Structures are given as structure tokens and as C-alpha cells.
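Input.
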Amino acid sequence: MSSFTVNQRTYQLPDRPIAVLCLDGSADDYFDAALARGRMPNLQRIVLAGFRGFARGAMPSFTNVNNTSIVTGVPPAIHGVGGNFFFDTTTGEEVMMNSSRFVRVPTLFPAAQRAGRKVAVITAKEKLRDIFASGLIEHGGIAFSSEKAGQAALASHGIGDVEAVAGPTPEIYSGEASVYVLRAGAELLARGRADFLYLSTTDYMQHTYGPTAPEALDFYHALDVQIGRLLDLGAIVGITADHGMNSKQRADGSPNVVWLESELLTRFGSGFRVILPITDPYVVHHGALGSFAQVHLPLQASGLPPLEQILQWVRTLPGVTEALDRDTAARLMQLPPDRMGDFVVCSGRDTVLGRTPEYHNLKVLHGGLRSHGGRYEEIVPFFFSHPLNPTYTALAAGDPRNFDIFDFTINGTVIR
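Output.
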């Protein structure tokens, strides 16, 4: 049995393939709906033979934050990625955090590869591939996205025949973009080209459909087929999500938005910069509207009331649930202070935060608005194909985090 240590965690590798799945946007409601209707028989196998529970994700409940936490095993305060997007005060630029240069610690993958595993990391969204691939390809590993599957090359991705393995490159705004990730992972495992998998999907379907929609049920059934393949190939499977998903609209179907920058302008004057860390290239998903915002005070702050008075006023806005100064938010949410605004705002289960009505193009949204980012999308599913040993059963009854998933899957499961 080999082992490796990364970011002060040691992983004792069992003599079985490992497959960890991050099913993007998968609030537990989606699994409940599919299981109740008999659409996920392989997940039912996991529930009966293994473990089903909950974990707390990293805040804000966004993709880059949580995927980076999962693949490093540490919170954002340590790895440095506190959003998909941030305002770099050193350069005065608003920057997308979709590169490994923003990650301050190594991922698990190069160490697992050096420990003798054949590592394959597959994501739906190309924006995550650079983070996942960092240090892996040069050690013989594989990393590619379903979004750009046809562009994968041996020198840059560790594999050059993705479409021959898993089929034609899918449209990113589709359920197939996620199913493809799992199918490709199962194919690599079946062909002996990988035995340590991280498979990360996209949340287009959850942004578009509620848990009981026929399209969502069909989608989860398709995922379940590939989960069954991984089980049948002998993998120890761990499943979690980066965040949940909730409807963020009014009774008439219109988006339920607090235009935070507009509100601050009206009340206190110009100069506030509201940063929405959900912002990424996939605006059809959410229109850059989420339930978490970083706010930078005006550079010329003369005449402004004290910060606590501003926070007290922000807390009175309908739909706002939290307004915290930087230090408090960094402590409570385990965020990197140097990549934060002067204060943080979170909104409720049915509400999102925006900058101004002019800033957001809501015409790009497909159907109603479903989104994430706040506390109400923080709790995510936690599944394991095998029972947990007593130590990890106790940990699961406490406050497990979704970024403990590799630890639980590798160190915590009982192989029978």
C-alpha cells in the first residue's frame, strides 16, 4: 500500500481504483427526486451498501472556490481562491481566478501520480483545467475538459485521443457536457489508463431545471449509468458537490435581485465597487448574479459614515442576510483577506445580488433564474460507495467539509 502527503494530510492508498466526483450544483433535492422515482438505481446501491450524508462546502458557494478546496484538501484562506472573480487592488483590475497561478498550495494530483497512481482529472468547464493540471502533466498524468475535448494534446493534456475514447466534444450548455466527464473517466478506468480519477461536472442543468423537471430526472439517470460503470469497474467512489442551487426569482418569474451597487450609490454616493465572485465565462448559467458579493469602499472616503453604519444600513435591505467587515468575514468564512473587499454581503435563499441593472444582461438567461453563492447553497451531499470506518463515521457526524472528500474516500472507507 503506497501513500502520499499533501498540505499536511496523508493519504494511505488502498489497492483499488479511486473515483471522486464533484457533481456541480447538485443540491440534495436533485438526488431525492431521482431516487424517489427510481431513476438512480446505482446511487441507491451506494446508499444501501455505503454511506449517505451531508458536508459543508466552502464559502462563497461557487465553483472555483470549492473545486480548488476539494483538489487541495484545504479552505480558501490557505489555497487563496476566494471566488471565480476578484478585484486585484495591486493592479486595479477585475480578474478571473481560473489559473493555477492564483493557487497558493499544490493539488493532490502530482503527489498521487508520483506515488504510483495513474491520475486523470476531467472537468466539464475549461476554466478549471489549468488549476487541476498544475504539476500533473509533467509527471505523466491526464487533465482535460469536456468543453475542449477535441483540442486535447499529449504534450499539454497527457492525452491526445479523447474523442476516440469518449465520443465527440459536447456543447458546454448541455447535460451531455457533464455526462461526458463521467463517461470519459469510466472509459479511461476500463482501458487501464487511469486508476485515480477526479471528475468535475458543470451545473448548466441545475441552473436551468428544478429537481423534479423531466429534463433533470433524465440527466441524473444518465449520470447514474456512468456511476454504475465506475462501481462495476471496482472503484471506490466518493460523491459530493461544490455547491447547491436555488430558485432566485419572484412569483411572476422575474429575477429577485438586490442591485447592491445602485443602492449604495443612491444612499452614500459614487465610488463603491461591487464585485460578484460568481462571474465567469458561462453567463448563460446565471447572468453573473449570485448570493454573495465583495464590496470595495470608494477610494476617496471622506464624508462617508463609519463602516459599521454602512453595514447596518446594508443589513436592512430586503433579501440581505449578512453584511460583514473583511476581517470578520475572513475569519467566519475562511477566506484570504488580501483578495477580499472592505466588506462582504450575502443574500437569502430566493435572492441574488447584482451591481446595477445596466451591468447585467438578463436576456442571456435560459428560462428563470436559479443560482447560488450564499449560505443556502453551502450544504452539499456526501456519498461513499463503501461503509465508513468508526473514526470517519464519527467525523461524518460532526462538521465534515466537502473538501474532505478525498480523505474520506481514501482513508475512511472500509473495503469488504
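DSSP finds 17 helices and 19 strands in the chain.
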